Fold these 2 entries.
Entry 1:
Amino acid sequence: MGQLWSERLRRHQLNQFKYLRLIFNDNFMLAFIVLIGALGFWYSNLLGTIHQTLTFGKPIVIVILFLAVQVGGIATLLEEPDSTFLLVKEKEFYKYFRSAKNYSSFMPVVTVAMVNFLLSAFASRGAGLRIIDIVAIAVGLIVYKLGSLNINLLELYGRDKIGNFKMRLVSNILLLVSLIVATYLFSWTMLIVAVLYYFFLNARVKTLETSGQLQWKYAIETENQRMFRIKRFYNLFTDVPGVTSKIRRRKWLDWLYQPIKKNPKNTYLYLFARGFVRNNEYLGLFLRLTIIQAIMLALIDNFYISLIVEMLFIYLVGFQLKPYFKEVMQNLMQRLYPIRGKTKIADFTKLSTAILLIQWVISAIAILYKFGFGMNSLIIIIAGLAVLIFVNYFYMPRQLKKYLD
Amino acid sequence: MTLEVKELTGGYGQVSVLKKETFTVESGQVVGLIGLNGAGKSTTIKHIIGLLTPRGGQILIDGISLHDDVEKYRKKIAYVPEMPILYPELTLREHIDLTIMAYGLDHDKTWESANQLLKTFRLDNKLDWFPQNFSKGMKQKVMIVCAFMTDASLFIIDEPFTGLDPLAVNDLLNIVENKKKAGCSVLMSTHVLATVQDHADKFVLINHGQVRADGTLDQLKAKFNMQQDSNLDDIYIKMSNEDL
């Protein structure tokens, strides 16, 4: 079983590595660095404005830390055929899951530590916590998270209940209460509770080795869902086989396509417009990037950073529309239509122009809100328009051509 | 409408699956394309509809090749693939609208025939459904409706009978019969020999990427030295045994 786990892990990591390499390409790195930089800039500006302890400082710290502990669960790497082929080995799966838990501890621990580290500046300034308190709470949370990973294991065996209550619920209430007590009264509470909690759950998990009955269906479904979430994330940047996005009818948006006349020239516009609005993936991407951009522009009052954010995000949305064109071009039936490739690209350009124009208008409003009517606003807004024109009429047509056949 | 396949050589990648295939489909003819799995039926069809480019030889529809006039060539063909291919984001109604737009068909007239076909296949109350809600057989019916409502003159159907319920098979055969009466041609590949024997005028037997024999049932019997009462099944088995 140990061997099975290491084999699976090796294959999994190889796979992840393949996708990560594709994601961290030049474009993404650039966006990522700017995003981090802008957020850091905003955060330090924010800290600069805090001169005394805020009344809602502690609640904010509590909420953020509570959410940080929720991140991450156990990656079991179970596969569908396991429930048929490895059914006889059920008893030995306990060992397998122990290895899985050890491996899965890394990410959540790093997350909790990082969040604590980044939050510490605010916690000491805005919430008035001493450094020793912050460290005690951070260590307590890490131990707590290590303990709560056991709940994932108990769930796999259908043993995640205390009396009539779900363990996850009880555990979260305990966490919240401990956090409140730790921040307001006595910071060591978190650590003490966490250690007790950790030992309690570890003892519970030990009983699984002898008397546990693995819930195969639940275990495999949970892992599938986890994988799907990861793949869907990767799919935003690159093509992941087997990931199909959710389709929603969105009848209330039908008016959007009304201006598209039903004639042969508009065949592809008809198709692209509906596809974009109904496919959660591309619409979601557009909305997320547009909203993040608008929020950043409304908060940052540095001319150069705003300029970069405006240009970069318009480029990014345009760039990320490419896979949608590719997806449609992979449909065999459309390749048989008596319609030329040039028309397909022209129709796609119409769609992407409409999308980017919406984004541009929204970002322009955010810029005007922050900088007012003036030269700075004008320069940023025109720069955005220039990127829009460049992406749609120079960059994309060349890029899309290679997807035609 | 005549389809001429002349000395067609081609396939995927570097390997030539098809070696100098030659056969014709005449106006008003229903032709059955028959062969073992992997014999080259689907590959032949993919060359005719223009998804693959021939490495040698020619494919002409009414004397023009895909190369001569892409749009004119494509308008003459309607294709029903073996596995249904639909747009996940479009409803059934929108699939029909899109096909009408793509082929530049008359909106009202085409909808009339589409409605008739939809009724035949009991899809007329599912116009607002998405492909993900359809079963495989229903998807296949959608493909059939979208193909047979066009004014194409050559209908190419890949394995139409597997996956359809018996009633739908019967309906499809009626539709094929009507198209034939209207002077259109139909080329279908299939393994359901008993059905195709009764409904096709001519058969093209493909083996190892070559046309082993073609002609009417009687002509085939003569070629394979078979008895008068033998059927397509017997001929098929005889052809397959030639390899042994």
Note: Residues 147 and 198 of chain A are 4 Å apart (CA to CA).
Entry 2:
Amino acid sequence: MDRYRDFSLGEFVWDKPFRNWVLNPTREDDETWQNWLAAHPDKREIVERARQLVLSIRPANASLSNPEKRKAVERIVERLETRHLDQTEASRLPWYNGRAVRIAAMLVLLAGLGWMFWLRHQPEQIGYDQLVAAANAEMVEAVNTTAKPLTISLEDGSRITLDPGSRMSYPAHFSSSQREVFLSGKAFFDIAKNPSKPFFVYANELVTKVLGTSFTVRSFADEQEVSVAVKSGKVAVFSRDEPGAAAKQSSRDLTGVVIEPNQQVVFLRKSVKITKSIVPEPEVVAEAGTAPHLEFDEAPLSAVFSALQSAYGIDIIYDKNIMDECPITATLTEMSLYEQLDLVCKAVNASYKSIDGRIVVEGKGCRNN
Amino acid sequence: MKALTRSDLYLEEEQKLWRKMLAGDVTAYEHLIDRTYDLLFHYGTKFNSDRELIKDCIQDVFLGVWEKRNALNPEIPPKPYLLASLRRRLHRLASRLRMDCMDYYNESDVVFDLEFSAEYQLIESENDRILASRMTEMLNELPKRQKEAVFLRFYNDMEREEIAVVMDIQPQSVSNLLQEAFKFIKSHWKAIVSLALALPF
């Protein structure tokens, strides 16, 4: 940001990052610029002037009304469908001469070959038993055969709650550089903080690395998904087989897919794919025991979103410039996050999506309402 | 690490729709059309003011994409590809029309033409309103290809390589166009600013 100190009005107007902030602001951008302005109050005037200039000078666009656009889009899709019908009724050749039959025959042949190849090269899904066997320390195993959760305390003060039908192996004594445990099934981990001795959970193909936090790992041998959900703190998750796994493991920082409270990652064992999302039922992140204040009276949208954001620790991304004009009066206590979002979005005529562990809100604002 | 920005998320989503659409997903196809329609329409109207003609051309572009979906690369960004197809189609159409009239045709007959305008009510200071009006005039005086590059770069957030795809020229030529535009803007800027300041208010 330093380069902006000597910017002239014209330089601001044609600077791309500056324009992006003005025309399509993100929360990060906005924060960066507000901080910079707070540190350089003498630049406020020139930035505001540049902002107005950027906003006012636009290409003249022919107007395209929503219904007109809708009709045009629908027409394209309709045309596509009628075209499909034409094609299927087009030619009446003997059945074995049709193009579709030839393609089908080819596909059957290919599928057969593929299946043979697959049988030969079926990768072994690495499970709990192999992992424990490969560990070179003396291991202790805890198995929960009861119908209730079972809590285990480790020597470092960490507490682990095993769900019924789950088991965990851990060394009798942790090594001097790291703490490693192996899990089959589902468990909640409350890990004692020790940044110099990171804690690793190995669950099938997935490795979870933490410095001190609480989270749940679900990894049953017969299920096709392995998931990690965070309750407090931050954890890093990566696949044991990915190329940089060794480096991620030894790095002092948390690298890989980093997840924060109310986020989860799911690893699909078949496709070896890690996806990040929001947990199905986000909980308020307990910060110093204070319940978040979620009653609003004619409050700007940004106040509502920032309250929700700090309550759940989930990023909410929206266009502040367009949508902050919408005043909100609502009581959002005793609702789930999704109910709260539904309500707020309905009030301002917007919609939201959950993308990559964040909430993205889209709307046209209230200026014309 | 670069923070993920909103436009990154948007681009990612577009890429996802493009991939799904190429795999034969009609819903994704419709979504993609819906998301890109405004841009294509506005870009198209810069070449030709006949709205219905532009709509027909956009329709042909999308029907063409669907037909060729097996041959298209799922990893190319969809927007520049779509804009480039629309541009090509408009050129071809124009050449056909010329032929019918037995007229001589060359590429430059189909030109990008764009008017910039300023919304003065967004500006507080009278001085800056004058500045905006001069700046608008200046932008409107840019040669048409420079204008097109400026439009794609500064009003549609496109990178040099993407603009090159759309305009069907080398990335280096895009840089040259933008540089020339800026030389022009810069040389006039000083005069404008001093003029605006010299006026007594």
Note: Residues 89-93 of chain A have pLDDT under 50 and may be disordered.
